[in-house]
Amino acid sequence: MGGPGSGEERLTVAVLEALVHALEAKSGSLAGHSSRVSAYAATIATELGLADAEVDLVRTAGRLHDLGMIGIRESVLDKAGRLTRDEYEHVKRHVEIGVHILAPLTQLSPVIQAVKGHHERWDGAGYPDGLAGDAIPVGARVIHVAEVYDALTTERPYQNTFSEAEAIERLEEIAGSVLDPVAVDAFAASVRGRRTLSFVSLDPPPMEEDS
Hints:
By secondary structure, the chain is mainly α. 56% of the residues lie in helices and 0% in strands. It has helices spanning 7-26, 33-47, 52-64, 74-77, 85-102, 109-117, 138-153, 164-174, 181-192. The longest helix has 20 residues, at 7-26. The radius of gyration is 16 Å and the shape is globular. The termini are far apart.
């Protein structure tokens, strides 16, 4: 199946992308995140040999993967310090919210599934459904790699910023546990071959003890 087909669907996706951009404009921690993830994810999908239509779907899913952040409290979204356990559980709801917003776009089922599964882990310890391995939609696996890379290479208050090379090494360290090893290999090959570079970290963000 190709990307957004009808004019109405393309318009709807464009409106949703505008919402994402508006959200990112209000949140320093998210600024530019979806655009970067979309580009990285499309690079990985291309390196994996996916058809052009599938690459377009992955690119669209990358732009919309954090759409559900629009339903997360600003006090949590922009918190500079560590998240409490309750706050982290609240942030996790962005997946459910994003899927709910996208649900009417029935012709974009692969995009919705990629958005829903982009926090699933290769070892089954992710959310929301605890899927593992190849049971995770390929678009979701690709976006997860792209998102972790972006988290590592973007300045965040609770972690050091990794260089490009350090980030790729870190991805390789968690391939086969957190991330799809084939998708990681594809991205590593692309970055190291200079065929690319045109919220969500690999582990839950550090949490403070509840008082």
